[in-house]
Amino acid sequence: MSGPGPLEPVEAQQARVLAAVRVLGSESLPLGAAAGRTTAAEVRAAVPIPVFDNSAMDGYAVHAADLTAASAERPSLLPVVADLAAGTDLTPELPQGAAARIMTGAPLPPGADAIVPVEDTDGGVDRVSIRRAPVRGAHIRRAAEDLAVGDSVLAAGVRLTPARLAAAAAAGHGSLEVRRRPRVAVVATGSELVAPGAPLRPGSIHDSNSTLLAGLVVGADAELVLAERVPDDDAALIAALARARAVGVDAIVLSGGASVGAYDVARSVLEPRGIAFRRIAMQPGKPQGFGVLEGVPVFALPGNPVSVAVSFEVFVRPALRTMQGRAPFPPPVHALAAVGWRTPPERRQYAPVALEYDGPTLLARPASAGGSGSHLAGSLALADGFAVVPAERSEVRPGDELAVMLVG
Fold first, then answer.
1. Domain coverage including residue 16
2. What is the pLDDT averaged over residues 281-287?
3. Which of 16, 43, 175, 390 makes the best surface tag, with the fewest CB within 10 Å?
4. Are residues 318 and 221 part of one domain?
5. CA 333 – CA 335 distance, rounded (Å)
6. 1 pLDDT more than 60
């Protein structure tokens, strides 16, 4: 699309993106290598949790009926006939009128129906004095009370956190079928860009976009396979795109050159190749390019750092989540505006905000005193997320409820 064109809804551009991406294939990985991956299939329990009846406390396994009269004033005395540690495979029958010393996690001996915590005893080894009558079933973890064999442990399409991996391990799995990581190339365009830390020449700036995009890609659980910086030169960008395709990528993300300026190289190279450039009703991030080039989704984002970050969260991250079999849009958090600010007319605003609690109330305030300008890279370092302000609102007032997209 050439020329300025009308402003189009954010949702329309998101729909185009999601219609063009596909869920990637899967692979089996050991649990130790699966953190951050996405389940490709439902995970069901191969063993019950707990696997067997076991003690929830260090103490003594007993017959509750033997101790109905036990009290601090008149303790009951029982012989100790067994000593059961966690991991033991010896679980002798517990005779009536006896106790077995037992550690947390040890199998419950047959016949026992209660655990007396060691704190309610004198800790005896051969004989134990019990100062409190136990309730039948006290401090016993019953087999399968959490999960039975075949119960669902994890749904398909969930990110594997340490807690979820632990649940899979407890349920008897040593490996899981997970989605392949999307392979992503990022290319920052601009003749003014120099490497971070390099001396600046007149008119140049340090390239923060390639660092920003690389971190966002990795933070989205994708694999960064190429990161380049090219000048505003058609041949240089064409060569970078060829290198990206040569290493095999699932997406290419460019920053800069997406508008209608004389040196907007991304547009001059990509538009003739079928990548559509549109004006989206959002601030920041109005100029957006997207399409499929030789089977690879290509995102052409604006060049200002805040625009890059917002555009990634609104368009690129949902695509990478979809490729991994996840829901494209994680739920936002809700906060109250700590202060008011003006918003752009007829455009949805994504304002960088810092979050803080005032008692139980979550508050959002602008991350930078300089406003929400798309060039204010420093505001990104202070932002916990982007407050989403609908296009029909002309201002945010103190106390207004805001939906906030968390960063990362």
1. 7-25+180-323
2. 96
3. 390
4. yes
5. 7
6. no
Question: What b/e string do you get for 77-102 counting C-beta neighbours within 10 Å, with b at 16 or more?
Answer: ebeebbebeeeeeebeebeeebbbbb
CB neighbour burial string for 10-21, b if at least 16 within 10 angstroms, e if fewer: beebbebbeeeb
Task: Please give the structure tokens belonging to residue 308.
Answer: 């890059």
Percentage above 90 pLDDT, the chain: 92
Q: Please indicate, yes or no, whether residues 204 and 166 belong to a single structural domain of this protein.
A: no
Are 62 and 130 found together in one domain? yes
pTM over 0.70: yes
Q: For 196-275, where are the alpha helices, taking DSSP H only?
A: 209-219, 234-247, 265-270
Taking CA atoms, 384 is separated from 14, 168, 191, 407, in Å, by: 23, 31, 31, 6
Spell out where 70-222 has E strands. 76-84, 99-102, 114-117, 127-130, 140-141, 152-154, 175-179, 183-189, 193-194, 205-206
> Would you say 202 and 194 are in contact if contact means Cβ atoms under 8 Å apart?
no
Q: Residue 164 has what pLDDT?
A: 99
Residues 197 and 288 in one domain: yes
225, 230, 236, 242 alpha-carbon torsion, rounded to 10°: 10
Q: Which two tokens mark 202?
A: 């007149």
Q: Are 404 and 333 in contact (CB under 8 A)?
A: yes
- 184 and 309 in a common domain: yes
- 258 and 265 in contact (C-beta within 8 Å)? no
Binning the chain into helix, strand and coil, the percentages to the nearest 5 are 20, 35, 45
State residue 375's pLDDT score: 52
Question: Both tokens of residue 276?
Answer: 């559509």
328 domain-assigned: no
Rounded-to-integer distance, Cα 312 and Cα 290, Å: 12
125 and 238 fall within a common domain: no
CB count within 10 Å of CB 359 equals 6
The answer as to whether 306 is a domain residue is: yes
**pLDDT the model gives residue 336:** 99
Beta-bridge partner residues of 378: none
